[in-house]
Amino acid sequence: MNSIIQPNYGQKTYSPSTKAHKAKQSGTHDSSFWDLATRVREKTKNIPEISSTKSVQQKMELSEAEDMQLFKQKFYEDLSKIIGHPTVNNVAVNISDTAFQAMKDDPEYRSQVLSLLQRDLDASYAPRNCSILITVGINLEQYSADSWSVGNDSEFRLHAKDSFWQRRTESHKKFMELQQEAAARRQLMMKLRMNNHSVSAAELLIGLL
């Protein structure tokens, strides 16, 4: 580093860095680039840093929602496999989101709920036909089942309109028709065997319908 002593100005320091600084101010191509970079850097200091935490959280929430939807769909499929007793005409099952979460977190509780549903839907309510409303909570103590005679089930319809799962009389009637058809065919086959495969035309027609 060189020192230049000038009268009336005292001692000034001259160094390569000072020369480079002067070069920046001279308007050369390099100085324009560095000036631009400096301005951009200064501006970005005043821009709040966008955190990716919110984006990641949104993706996680979406993933959890999709996962819950798949869980509900699988539960619905298992529930739909329960045929139910012929005396049960209408069924509605109320399950809150917190109850679904409890079953999702505890597979054993899910199995217990399905067992209770199987028990109540397959129970006989003879000599009357009933509409059943089942409520599932976050534990077994919050599980309940209420029934009303068909024709006197206005309260059932009121509480069942927003249920997670319903099986109404229409599907039940179709099931009963299929059961009756199957029973008629079995009776026809028994008669055929008992009468050495001889059967009337009317009986044969019934069996083919």
Structure overview:
- The chain has 209 residues and is of the alpha+beta class.
- Among the domains are: 65-167, no CATH class; 174-208.
- Helix content is 57%, strand content 16%.
- It has helices at 16-25, 29-45, 53-80, 97-105, 107-121, 154-160, 169-194, 201-208; strands spanning 2-6, 10-14, 88-95, 130-136, 144-149, 165-167.
- The protein has a four-stranded mixed beta sheet with strand order 5-4-3-6, with helices on both faces. It has a two-stranded antiparallel ribbon with strand order 1-2.
- A hairpin with a 7-residue loop joins strand 4 and strand 5.
- Helix 4 crosses helix 5.
- The N and C termini lie far apart (112 Å).
- The model is unreliable at 2-24 (pLDDT under 50).
List keywords for this structure.
four-stranded mixed sheet; two-stranded antiparallel ribbon; disordered N terminus; 8 helices; 16% strand; 209 residues; alpha+beta; 6 strands
Distance between the termini: 112 Å
Strand order of the largest sheet: 5-4-3-6
**Number of helices in the DSSP assignment:** 8
Strand count: 6
Range of strand content: 15-25%
Radius of gyration: 40 Å
Tell me, rounded to a whole number, the average pLDDT.
Answer: 74
Detail the poorly predicted runs.
2-24
Describe the secondary-structure layout.
Blueprint: E1 2-6, E2 10-14, H1 16-25, H2 29-45, H3 53-80, E3 88-95, H4 97-105, H5 107-121, E4 130-136, E5 144-149, H6 154-160, E6 165-167, H7 169-194, H8 201-208
Parallel strand pairs: 3-4
Antiparallel strand pairs: 1-2, 3-6, 4-5
Helix pairs in contact: 4-5, 7-8
